[in-house]
Amino acid sequence: MEHKKPCVLIVWKEFKPHILMFLAQVGCALVYFITEASFNHGMSPFLYVTYRYFVAALFMFPFAYFLERKQRPKLTFALFMEIFVLSLVGISAPINMYFASLQYTSPTLVASMFNIVASLTFIIAVALRYEALDLGDAHGIGKVVGTLISLGGVMMMTLYKGPKVKNLWGPLIHIQGRSGGSQENWLKGSVLAVTSCVSLSVWYIMQASTLKRYPAQLSLTSWMCFVGAMQSAIFTAIVEHRHPSAWLIGFNIDLWSTLYGGIVVSGLVIYVSLWCTEKKGPVFVTMTTPLCTVVVAILAYFVFGEKLYVGSIIGACFVIVGLYLLLWGKEADNQEEVDTTIITKDASTKCNVVEDPLECRV
After folding, report:
1. Within a domain: residue 6?
2. Fewer Cβ atoms within 10 Å of its own Cβ: the N or the C terminal residue of the chain?
3. With a threshold of 0.90, does the pTM exceed it?
4. Does residue 91 form part of some domain?
5. What confidence tens digit (pLDDT) does each residue in 16-31 have?
6. How far is residue 190 from each of residues 105, 112, 117, 177, 277, measured CA to CA in Å?
7. Is position 139 within any domain?
8. What is the pLDDT of residues 54-79, one digit of tens each?
């Protein structure tokens, strides 16, 4: 008599990438509220970014050192300067702006803004001719329409707050120091968030060329975290030069938010994303990104009692719809690349494609 596996194990084996990416997005969603509580407690967002990426670099270093020992190329001065620029464009500048925007807006808006990175990356890639665009094809039109819808959603969130959605009940978890509308500067925070997303979009395009010369993802991530933390430390020292005591943090929300952001978000989530990319492909990983926005909105409204505005909700919906349209168009490009690779491999090896179209026998 065969021993049947528990239902939980079957579900886990079948949907492991889906479950892991969902948990990763929940982990990313929680960081907004933990950091908001830390900022309201008095911690500087610039200091938070500095400490967080130092923690991330320390956490990632052992994995990078041992797992990529054989494939890691020699680090030249020119390559280090390239990593320096990548760290500036992808970590120290945009992440500082990103978390600074949290002080002026809300977790829901900041999380929603992050979804336009794909659209902005597409626009910059087309402008620099890294991305082909065929307006005679339905998928090409879908990419353009999706990009325009996403940008329209961001414009709505930035310029139109609309009426406030009435909370059904009081906050189940109260964020210390929350001071209502007096702390918010919607336009300033929105501009910071959008500028951060533009910088991240440029970073995604730049790192593609760097990976060709330094094909060690964990090592490159560790270097960028460390260099970005150093850059952020210099910037923080300039901004907080009148408050040297700001560098001291105790066993409170400031320490826990730093450890959580460094280990969970900048460490474990990156590892999970890399693993799921290998198993299911980059499109699958990218398509789970809006889950973070949904989780943030649910927690903000039902658990933390944050203020939600009609403009933010409608704008976020537009951004997500536009993102999926863009990904639909990109999925067609990815499938064409896979088909081309199969045909090229088939022609060069003269193989017979059998049950698995990706498996050749010479």
Report:
1. no
2. N
3. no
4. yes
5. 888 888 898 888 889 8
6. 7, 11, 14, 21, 30
7. yes
8. 999 998 899 888 988 888 888 889 99
Confidence of residue 348 (pLDDT cuts 50, 70, 90): very low
362 falls in which pLDDT band (50, 70, 90)?
very low
Please tell me the total count of domains within the chain. 1
Is 1 part of a structural domain of the chain?
A: no
Residues ≥6 apart with Cβ < 8 Å to 289: 25, 114, 115, 118, 323
Using H for helix, E for strand and C for coil, what is the string for the chain?
CCCCCCHHHHHHHHHHHHHHHHHHHHHHHHHHHHHHHHHHHCCCHHHHHHHHHHHHHHHHHHHHHHHCCCCCCCCCHHHHHHHHHHHHHHHHHHHHHHHHHHCCCCHHHHHHHHHHHHHHHHHHHHHCCCCCCCCCCHHHHHHHHHHHHHHHHHHHHHHCCCCEECCCCCCCCCCCCCCHHHHCCHHHHHHHHHHHHHHHHHHHHHHHHHHHHCCCHHHHHHHHHHHHHHHHHHHHHHHCCCCHHHHCCCCCHHHHHHHHHHHHHHHHHHHHHHHHHHHHCHHHHHHCCHHHHHHHHHHHHHHCCCCEEHHHHHHHHHHHHHHHHHHHHHHHHHHHHHHHHHHHHHHHHCCCCCCCCCCCCC
Full domain range(s) for residue 103: 17-349
